[in-house]
Amino acid sequence: MKNNQALNMTLLCFDPIHYPKNEGVMRRIHYGGSTESFPVENCAVYNEDGSVSLKYYNPTAKKVELRYRLHNYQHSKSEYRKDPDFYSKDFVIEPMTLEDDGYWHITINPGAGFHSVYFIADGVRVINTRGPYGYDGFDIRNFVDLPDDEDTQLHPVPHGAITREIYWSEETQRYRACWVYTPASYAFSDRKYPVLYMQHGGSQDEVCWFQSGKLDMLMDNLIARGEAEEMIIVCNNGYVLKETETGEFQEGRLDHVIINDCMPYIEKKYRIQTDRRKRAAAGLSMGGGHVRRLVFGHPELFANVGIFSSGECFPTVTEDMDFSKLFSDAAQFNESMDVVYITCGEADPRYDRTTADLRPLQDQGFKIEFQGYQGQHEWNVWRYSAKDFVKKLFKPNQE
To answer: Where does this protein have coiled-coil stretches (predicted)?
Structure first.
């Protein structure tokens, strides 16, 4: 697991090969546009004891530090849930050590799973371009992915494909992009597949479920073992911005984009089953609120929903939506919906409110499943949420 290629891959570079010095072949790159060069080395090495050794090249820096969050949860789950500031209190800043090779070194063990890490050189946050990086927080950031669940790693199984599709949106009057996962069998068959529309969270984008969530590898492994049905997955950007006559942008409706713009495009280009019981939507955090509006606002189109760590939790009526009719009859709801799966990190401040929203509905007999996972508001929770959700979808007994 420690040498699995998935740990260092990004969507910009699938296999960033680094050449060890002891092979006699020294690959070098130029530094800062000058004639100076330095050896290309692996800047994130995963160790057998569960730690990771990081390097950052900057021989002229006077001080380099690494900021990251520990996953040992020093406080009780209830303390985290009552005080969101506990989340930031788990961040630590540790000094890195400059070696003769011009690289700054550090070894950390923040716990298994996905972690954002921040390199700080002389007080300024920088991107380590030789280490794994992705998009989050409306920004590029480095990460480490300490082995946790083998299903988010590469294994010798049939692999699906990820395709970027560009379509016109009448809602925004702009072109939009979505990423589409097709299972390995899609290219070799003529049958139709069920579809899952998967949404990211706040400050993320349409790539995050594949870059940070490793959703394609998760699906490949589950499908290969027969634990998940083959399906097509569509990831859209959750930010729907419409340009006004003054040149400013105002927020539009994601459900309008998906239903009126994206779904017709996808169903025309891909072999998609259009039965509502063969459609699902899921999302994390902000995306959880998006898919709740999408599915519960359009039950004639969807019969499956997964809501992970939603900031809105699970109200049936708010200022801008009213699902009270859908939730007025438990028997009718249960007949209409196949999978309603709600999750949250057990140390997430959203946990208590989510369970409080759900409890009266569950007591009335609504078939809504809730699952808590170890963790806070983070990818470690959302990966397991997605894994358990897709395993429930599109089973033959749901037809």
So the answer is: none
